[in-house]
Amino acid sequence: MTILSFSWDGDDSTGPHTFTIGREYRFKSIKLKSVEWVMNAGTLSDAISGSTSGVDQSRTIHAMLGVKFGFCDSKDVVHYESASSAETLTTGLVPFGFSQNDNSDSWASGGMQSRNFEDLYLIKDRPQKWTSSTDITLSAYFRGVETDGAITAWAVCTGSEFDDASYINVTIELC
Questions:
Q1: Spans of all domains in the chain
Q2: With contact defined as beta carbons under 8 Å apart, do 148 and 50 qualify?
Q3: Is-contact 144 60, C-beta < 8 A?
Q4: pLDDT 10s digit of each residue in the chain, 175 long?
Q5: What is the spatial distance between Cα 66 and Cα 143, in angstroms, rounded to a whole number?
Q6: Which of the four CATH numbers 2.60.40, 2.60.120, 1.10.10, 2.40.128 does domain 2-48+61-101+109-174 have?
Q7: How many CB atoms sit inside 10 A of residue 62's CB?
Q8: What are phi and psi of 140, to 5 degrees?
Q9: How far is Cα 141 from Cα 133, in angstroms, rounded to an integer?
Q10: Dmax over Cα atoms in the chain, in whole Å?
Q11: Residue 30 burial (CB < 10 Å; 0-12/13-18/19+)?
Q12: In a 3-state reduction of DSSP, which class is residue 119?
């Protein structure tokens, strides 16, 4: 068993980040152990008026967040989404939580959020080999909420959503 932790922030990356593995790993399965995050860009929440069609009371909604694992294929993790126009699927996408309040100082106010996963396999019983030069790409994803009454399809974060105050840490177990 080997535990690997991948961290990136908005200072040096937008949503996607590529890590080069510094040594060889051989394993048959990968489990997602946890995701910790701070993502509070103003574009990730929206105050909706109760007078908006289909909304019964005023409230603030927050964007759903996810991480896409570039090493997964269609035998591994596939996220299905039903939208008003069509069904879509995204290989390797795992939803993990929601953004915080916009315009808040999440670091100072203890706004780090965390989600632990128990036995969530990203790859199971398929022998793998990562060499010392293998690149692993992880991408922060979101569902936009900026239009009153509408939630967009999943999309990779840009600098607008994954800004300089954003941070993600993903921990996996190779077994």
A1: 2-48+61-101+109-174
A2: no
A3: no
A4: 899 999 988 876 677 899 999 999 999 999 999 998 888 776 777 777 666 666 677 777 777 888 999 998 877 777 776 655 555 667 888 888 877 754 444 444 446 788 898 879 999 999 999 999 999 999 988 887 766 667 777 888 887 778 887 888 999 999 9
A5: 9
A6: 2.60.120
A7: 19
A8: -80, 135
A9: 26
A10: 57
A11: buried
A12: strand
Question: Which amino acid, one-letter code, is at 84?
Answer: S
Residues 58 and 149 sit within 8 Å (Cβ to Cβ)? no
Cβ–Cβ < 8 Å for 39, 169:
no
Distance in angstroms (rounded) separating the CA atoms of residues 76 and 71 = 9
Nearest to 35 by CA among 106, 102, 94: 94
Residues in the chain: 175
Collapse the DSSP code of 48 into the 3-class scheme (helix H, G, I; strand E, B; otherwise coil) and give the result: strand
Which residue has tokens 């394993």?
Answer: 27
Q: Shortest CA distance to 169 belongs to which of 48, 2, 4?
A: 4
Asked whether the CA dihedral 70, 72, 77, 83 is positive or negative, the reply is positive
